[in-house]
Amino acid sequence: MVINTEGLSFTFGNQQVVKSVSLRVPAGSIYGFLGPNGAGKTTTIKLLLNLLRPESGSIHIFDQELQANREAILGQTGSLIEQPAIYAHMTGRENLKNRAMLLQVPTIRVNEMLALVQLTAAADKKAGRYSLGMKQRLGIALALLSNPKLLILDEPTNGLDPNGIIEMRELLIKLARDHGKTVFISSHMLAEINKMATHVGIIHQGKMMFQGSIEELEALNQPRVQIELAGKTDEATALLNANGYNIADAKTNNLFIAYQSKEQMGQINALLNQNGFIVYSITKVQKDLETLFLAITQKAGA
């Protein structure tokens, strides 16, 4: 495990914001640290980076205890918390050169990082004129300058447009797959993490609610077929039940059935149309993060 914590806790004033958190982050993984705003994600990250001291619990990174081996661990760790620390009056290249001098890193790394995050064409443009997505990519380039083994990112897709989110996702997948990095990324967007993570931890109100592989998460988050009808939902429910399509849930003019395949969706649509029901839409859906929290909490309490 690249990151291994036991019973990690932290309190601001009289409010405990991290409650006995135990993280297991495998080497070479993209670990999605999921939770709503205020769940304790950023505080946990600051604990991992030694920016805050835990009130209890232990932190081991690269199999070393953090406090006793702070310099060695942080020398192999790159991070981006909230907004990237860039100088707006400098170009992207100048920002990287400045950081390279501070870190005593060969300047050849500057061009390598610009190419990696696809900023070569904009390298000599003032960073203050970069789009938000370009600034985030520059921030990741700065974090990667020293060639760290571990990259810790706090909500790196916040505020990005759809193209920026796709670019960020592709970059992180490339870093793990082609460059052997372990990527720890916090987010409140389940759908986005689901597209790139290999492992997931879910935190809610400071407590870990779930931790495991993306396959284990998907087993909890089984997709459903959502059928939106013009009306007559009671009659449609009776028809579907009679034909072996058991209704899992029903809301106003919407029926939900456990998803099996695209063929199943086509058969349901045909059955309803053949029996005179007007189907406005039929789609495959999964729980959002809030609904998944509720499902996990209910399962834990069962």
Give a description of the structure:
It is a single chain. This protein has 302 residues and is an alpha/beta fold. The chain folds into 2 domains: 3-212, Rossmann fold (3-Layer(aba) Sandwich), CATH 3.40.50; 223-285, 2-Layer Sandwich (Alpha-Beta Plaits). 38% of the residues lie in helices and 28% in strands. It has 11 helices and 15 strands. The protein has helices spanning 41-48, 70-74, 92-103, 108-116, 132-144, 162-179, 190-196, 214-220, 233-242, 262-274, 289-301; strands at residues 3-12, 15-21, 24-25, 30-34, 56-61, 64-65, 77-81, 150-154, 182-187, 199-204, 207-213, 224-229, 247-251, 254-258, 279-285. The strands form 3 sheets. It has a 6-stranded mixed beta sheet, sandwiched between helices. Strands 1, 2, 3, 5 and 6 form a 5-stranded antiparallel beta sheet that branches. A hairpin with a 2-residue loop joins strand 5 and strand 6 (64-65). Helix 3 (92-103) packs across helix 4 (108-116). It is globular, with a radius of gyration of 23 Å. The mean pLDDT is 84.
